[in-house]
Amino acid sequence: MNTNKIQIKFLNSDMKNNNIFFPEYATPGSSALDLKACINKKIILSSKEVVLIPTGISIYIENPYITALILPRSGLGHKNGIVLGNLVGLIDSDYQGELMISLWNRGRKDFCINPNDRIAQIVFVPIIRPEFDIVKKFKKTIRFQSGFGHSGI
């Protein structure tokens, strides 16, 4: 098993001969690949509406020490109020279904999603699977149990 090989499958017959829906890095320095809307016609996402958009692809990571995160595209969120309905998508290494993007229009205006629009991004990250050591007490730290806002604003 090559630990960095991710299997990809095209689910839409039109895509098999056309790479326009293939995830791509926008720039040489991009950390994440853009995911595109695999739709036949435009979809109007009304204000406050949530809709599932197909990508037309499925992936199989296989390596349990790698996961994929689906993240919003910053420009869509900042300029248009379009974010992920679940905020972040987590793709487990053994998932093989279609990547579907839950888009939420938190803005005040309707938003048009066109075929092949870049709607989200996917990044692959390493996973640490810890072993747990059951204890009765922790060694006390400076922070101890201080939570939200403990270090000031």
TrEMBL record:
Q: Kindly state which keywords UniProt assigns to this record, in alphabetical order.
A: Hydrolase, Magnesium, Metal-binding, Nucleotide metabolism
Q: Which GO terms describe its biological process?
A: dUMP biosynthetic process; dUTP catabolic process
Query: In which residues is substrate bound?
Result: 73-75, 86, 90-92
Per UniProt, what is one Pfam family of this protein?
A: dUTPase
Q: In which pathway does it act?
A: Pyrimidine metabolism; dUMP biosynthesis; dUMP from dCTP (dUTP route): step 2/2
EC number(s) for this protein? 3.6.1.23
The record, for InterPro entries, names: dUTPase, dUTPase-like, dUTPase-like_sf, dUTPase_trimeric
* Signal peptide residues on this chain, from the entry's feature table: none
Q: Which reaction does it catalyse?
A: dUTP + H2O = dUMP + diphosphate + H(+)
Q: Which cofactors must be present for this protein to function?
A: Mg(2+)
Molecular function, one GO term = dUTP diphosphatase activity
Q: NCBIfam families recorded for this chain?
A: dut (TIGR00576), PRK00601.1 (NF001862)
Q: Which family does it belong to?
A: Belongs to the dUTPase family.
| Name by which UniProt lists this protein | Deoxyuridine 5'-triphosphate nucleotidohydrolase
Taxonomic lineage is: Bacteria, Pseudomonadati, Pseudomonadota, Gammaproteobacteria, Enterobacterales
* Primary gene name: dut
